[in-house]
Request: fold
Amino acid sequence: VEDLDLNIVKSEKVDLGRFTPLLAGRRPLLTSALADMETRSESLGLIMIDSTPSLGLSGKLPLGRRLLSTSLGLIDPSINYSQRLSPENIVLLGVKKADPDEASLIRKLNIKTFTMEDVDLLGIREVTMRSIRRAASGTGGIILRFSRRAAGPQGLTSREFHFMLEILAGSETIRCLDISGYPMDSETCQFVETALGKKILGR
Reply:
């Protein structure tokens, strides 16, 4: 993981059973992941661990602020993966802020959202387990996209982040991993290793 090229746009296809890694550096790849999985017959769930919902409706916004709305065809009808990715199987986790329009869309589309208030109230284990049940229900697995922006002040602690990824790895439901959009430093690499199942004692 430490040797990942930050300029990679998409990883080489690797036969890891049902797992299709899409590991990248600076540009969000959710739409690329969905496009690559169009050939599969099953639908997929999505867990997005990020500080914002990425449901902006203006095409002028940075891609990271409209990534989910773009994937659902809410900005450009020619880009629409909602047949593979139903809103009922989308979970937003670790949200720290949302614009009024984004909050309205979350309610309209019935997208399950766990804000930091929910994390504080329910605990990280319960929130993660509920997220897996929601995203995996009736699907062939989960796309996991996480941004380190969810951590830090008023957000997830480093330990909460690792614990969440440990639970997700143990669920064996992850089919695609998108960790793009920010520098691949040593801490991010540790998060990736945890998401891929690495344990402290190596078992």
About this structure: The helical segments are 30-36, 67-71, 100-109, 116-122, 124-136, 158-171, 186-195. The mean pLDDT is 79. Residues 45 and 136 are 6 Å apart (CA to CA). DSSP finds seven helices and five strands in the chain.
